[in-house]
Design goal:
There is one protein chain. With 169 residues, this protein is of the alpha/beta class. The protein has one domain. 49% of the residues lie in helices and 25% in strands. The protein is elongated and about 60 Å long.
Length: 169
Amino acid sequence: MKLFNLKLVLLCLSGFLVSGCSVPLKQLQMDAEFPEVSYVGRGTSAGPMLMGAMGPMGIAVGIAIDEGIGRDIERALSDSLVQNQTTIVKSVAVNFPKAERFALRKIEFKSDANDDDLAYAITTLILYPSETFKCFSSESSPLDALKSSDIGWMIVNNSFASEVACKDQ
């Protein structure tokens, strides 16, 4: 009888080892909707100064400059989403283990106060099922790289450790 129990225990243990000693985890889901991407830089703040030289068109020119930069950054993020989505999902899963699903709602890039050639991101996401808004601030990165590579996703991913108060939702 002892031999039978020993064989049963060994069989159970070997089955556990063969299965990989793991329990499958539920996969966190990221909503498919692409986040709103914008850039606020010196163009917007230079608008009133341009107004002195160009009249009312000066403000529009300043805003248009920032909108163009924002579109370039959005295009770079969109082009590199597939390569970076798994990393983003894993980071959110690690930082918010109770979340079942999340949505990246907005990524707002802002020019660095000390250097016009750098920008940082404020990322807003919503965690479900709690519908909790979370906001994060990233380190600054070169603006040219943000417009032409996947560095935007890298700084968003790294920002999940730097939560800030959400200003608007």
